[in-house]
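Ticket #4471: structure export looks truncated?
Reporter: QA, pipeline team
Priority: medium

Steps to reproduce: submit the single chain below to the structure queue and open the exported record.
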Amino acid sequence: MSSDDVARRLAQVQERVAAACAAAARRPDEVRVLLASKTMDVATVRAALLADTAARTAGATHAPVLLGENRVQELVTKAPALADLEPTWHVIGPLQSNKVNAALRWAAAVESVADDALARRLSGRAQGREQPLDVWVQANVSGEPTKHGVAPDAAADLAVRVAALPGLRLAGLMTVGARSDDERVVRAGFARLRAVRDEVVASGEPGTEHAHGLSMGMSGDLEAAVAEGATVVRIGTAVFGLRATPAG
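Actual output as written to the record:
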């Protein structure tokens, strides 16, 4: 895919987000685009970042895009090569404890915290950082066994425990939407995550005051996610096209 194609597709995504916000009576600056760069080469990701910068220089008012990686191996390869552009990286896939040190060299946030063990590991490694590490509790709102995340009924309690850990800043909750052609099913899952978020914030427990974020919605369901309150949408295919399946 050429740089022009990437720029065009990214502009289309930003237009979709703006339209979804208008339909939901929300401001467009309430929703941030995270580019999921899984399997993408550095040149393609660089093209997306440069296109985003060019759009904002030309007058677009959206916030800079975020970058997200599912695998730490890809993060530590791409991040140094893109450091001159100073992107903000999020880990958006399951994170193994033995990869925490490598991830935190580059990531400003981990969106895939689904158990106390990982949260404690992150806390132990983040306490020496200049800024707290943003973390998001991942909930499996669809109940699909192939999806990562804590059960929704347990997500609020986990979030409260995570929020209390030193070195961490609970930024919100994350989920992957249901794999369904029925928008009502997809939206119900997103609404469930919003309800958990509201419960966490309303608890008044230490560290929950910043947990307003909802990272939910991808290329195929971003409109449903924005309608239900998403603050971050994770976009891959709509910008980068279909991904090649990694060998091995």
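Status: closed, not a bug. The export was complete when the record was re-opened. Leaving a note from the reviewer for reference: The mean pLDDT is 96.
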